[in-house]
Write a structure and sequence with these properties.
472 residues, alpha/beta, Rossmann fold, 7-stranded parallel β-sheet
Length: 472
């Protein structure tokens, strides 16, 4: 954790006592470097920052752990308990340097076009489907998420749904609420000795596998890659084999072109008669119309859905036919558990996510560290120690094209570069360098040279300065 203190203007001596971002630029275009690759955006002018000049917008009731962490650093934090309508979002995003969201807010290319100063996006959830990652990278905007912090919460929800479906708890509870006492064991079963088939075997699925085995279930899984099984779980050759052999099928895959409608009519017919389907991954993975047909025919005994192809933008009575045609039908099916995308919504998970993503944003703003970024090369340099004075940290985000790094180093070569590292991820390259023993005149000259360079080649330039009083 750093102690926020003001940073002096470029024209004065550079002796700040904590890491603080100082300026960032967007480049123009140049025919020699495939200018069509990067969108035409206004250039960001160099401007020294006080820590308090950093503006952060947190939406969708992000856990207070993140809010407190960022406020303690001295940043301006604006907090909202819900998502914003597109018009409001576009207006709010114009001047902020960081935005934090969960799953409801959609940061498309058209929305990001209005973000003049945006440095980073924090997705306080597992996925990043709600952000145009490629476009954000082209705009020099790093995206951070928390792919593992709520794994246990999702796994526990799934194992609970396995039990509830097997015992038809949802229907029994509804009957009791309506005043009906119906004490019967028909179609109610134990899960001991049953087979759980898991599609996709990442962190959530592996924890689910352990929980299921501890309750006496056998576990099969299929994944695109060959994996080492945990416990007695066994990987099968393909999806067809898993569907035909499982009493319960649980989905744990990302949203991709390959997984869209992964479970359709043919796959549902391949499942065992009287089996159950659980989806806590992504809504587009299951064809809901086909699922309704399989439930009405009696081929499936039950289903549990926590995610949907389209979801309401806000809390309230919005899960109805206005959202989609299939809503009314699926609400009327027996032994179907419907939950509002709450797989990772536990206090423990949200606190862990808030700390993880909030910490990643803090490290990126203060020192340019991209460890954990979903759309940038992972680059970091060791921290400066308290004995180091008059230091400057430069981060240069640019197209991964021959010659760009040489042009940058032609400028940096006139200075005392103590540490430097560069890495690339697809078409994006990220360079970080620490320069020591620089006075105010040298800093001003360096900024001028880098600004000129940023107008000559398509790139994104984000310098940060660190100094002798830094504490980490």
């Amino acid at each position: 954790m750093t102690i926020p203190r003001d940073i002096t203007p470029v024209s004065n001596m550079i002796v700040p006592s904590s890491p603080s971002p100082s300026a960032f630029f967007n480049a123009g275009t140049s025919p020699s470097f495939e200018t069509s690759y990067f969108p035409a955006v206004p250039k960001k002018q160099p401007k020294p920052f006080n820590t308090g000049d950093i503006k952060i917008l947190l939406l969708e009731d992000i856990n207070r752990t993140a809010c407190e962490l960022l406020q303690k650093e001295g940043y301006q934090v604006e907090f909202h308990t819900s998502s914003l309508r597109d018009v409001e979002l576009i207006e709010k995003i114009r001047d902020v340097h960081v935005i934090g969201i969960r799953s409801k807010t959609k940061l498309t290319a058209s929305v990001l076009d209005h973000a003049k100063n945006l440095l980073a996006i924090g997705c306080f959830c597992i996925g990043t489907d709600q952000v145009d990652l490629e476009y954000a990278a082209k705009r020099g905007i790093a995206v951070f998420n928390s792919p593992f912090s709520n794994s246990r919460s999702v796994a526990e929800l799934v194992i609970a749904e396995v039990i509830m479906l097997a015992r038809r708890i949802g229907d029994k509870s509804m009957e009791m609420h309506l005043g009906t006492w119906q004490k019967a064991s028909t179609r109610c079963r134990e899960i001991r000795g049953k087979v759980l088939g898991i599609i996709g075997h990442g962190h959530i699925a592996s924890q689910l596998s352990v929980l299921a085995e501890s309750m006496g279930m056998s576990v099969l899984f299929c994944d695109a890659a060959p994996l080492v099984a945990i416990g007695k779980a066994r990987q099968v050759k393909n999806l067809t084999e898993l569907l035909a052999s499982s009493d319960f099928v649980s989905l744990h895959v990302p949203e991709t072109s390959q997984t869209h409608s992964l479970i359709g009519r043919a796959e549902l017919r391949a499942m065992k008669k009287g089996s159950y389907l659980i989806n806590a991954s992504r809504g587009c993975v299951v064809n809901l119309q086909a699922l309704c047909e399989a439930m009405r025919s009696g081929h499936l005994a039950g289903a549990a859905l926590d995610v949907f192809p389209c979801e309401p933008p806000a809390d309230g009575p919005h899960f109805n036919e206005d959202l989609a045609r299939w809503v009314t039908e699926i609400r009327g099916l027996p032994n179907v558990i419907l939950t509002p995308h709450i797989g990772g919504s536990t206090e423990e998970a949200q606190e862990a996510i808030g700390a993880e993503v909030g910490g990643a944003l803090l490290r990126y703003i203060n020192s340019g560290c991209t460890t954990g970024a979903a759309n940038m090369p992972e680059v970091t340099l060791r921290s400066l120690n308290v004995a180091e004075v008059s230091h400057l940290r430069v981060i240069f985000i640019h197209q991964n094209r021959p010659g760009v790094l040489r042009q940058v180093n032609n400028i940096l070569g006139d200075y005392n570069v103590e540490k430097q590292i560069s890495d690339s991820r697809g078409d994006i390259a990220y360079m970080m360098a620490d320069i020591s023993k620089v006075d105010s005149a040298e800093v001003k000259a360096l900024y001028t040279k880098l600004e000129v360079l940023s107008c000559e080649i398509p790139n994104f330039l984000t310098p940060f300065r660190l100094s002798s009083g830094s504490t980490h």
